[in-house]
Amino acid sequence: MADEIVVGVDGSAAALDAVRWAAGEAALRKLPLRLVYAADVTGGRFDGGLPVPQTFFDELERAGQQLLAEAARAAGEATVTTEMPLEPAVSLLLDQSRTARMIVLGSSGRGGFTGMLAGSTAVSVSAHAHCPVAVVRGRPGATGPVVAGIDGSPTSEQALAVAFDEAAWREVPLVAVHAWSDADYGVPLPVPDLDWSTIEREQQRLLSERLAGWRERYPDVRVERVVVRDRPRDELLARSARAQLVVVGSRGRGGFRGLVLGSTSQALIHHAECPVLVVRPEQG
To answer: Keyword Nucleotide-binding, does the record have it (predicted)?
Structure first.
């Protein structure tokens, strides 16, 4: 691990918010920041096969360095390095994720990172990165607890580990949310006559088991347990209004086999009211 936090910048206000948030995250851990700008010129040619003149690259270099200098100023007193390779944004960030502690992106962008809110960059990087990916949106400087979504899947176990670590560094409580009904039917369906109180007690027991080892490892982190009969994305989106960070796995128990980014994590990336940290399974 390079033990640095990598931030994608493009000159947008959202990217500068991401830099400021990442600088605070780096300050907690005394880590450096790497600011990267993807100056992508596919093939070095205009449409029709005409070569790009050198003056174009000179202007691109000048403009890119200005963007990076502005981002470095936004980082304040953080230790910063900058990089501007001629490479597509997604492939650049995925390559950086192999050694970074965290990748940080703004919630929307332009230029090299166009389309984040629509999902072309944030979703792609969150789905395939080799380290956690933070999408800074909503209220970047928000206070409140760290919220973790838990569903018992291996990915959510790793997200829980990251969430405890974040709460410990920030010295704030951790809200562990287990929303155990992810039904989303387009039309009303008959509900079986079930003993919901018994089911809820069982879900409470399962959540306690998931938290047991981590509470021993992080005894100073105060944990609030939340078990609700609700769709995970609805409960987590609601709680994002009062949190400073929501941590989720890239996908959980639901969805189709092979789906690399689940509906809950995608909903949070697009609509959460605070920054979202997406954790993928560890690589083999």
So the answer is: yes
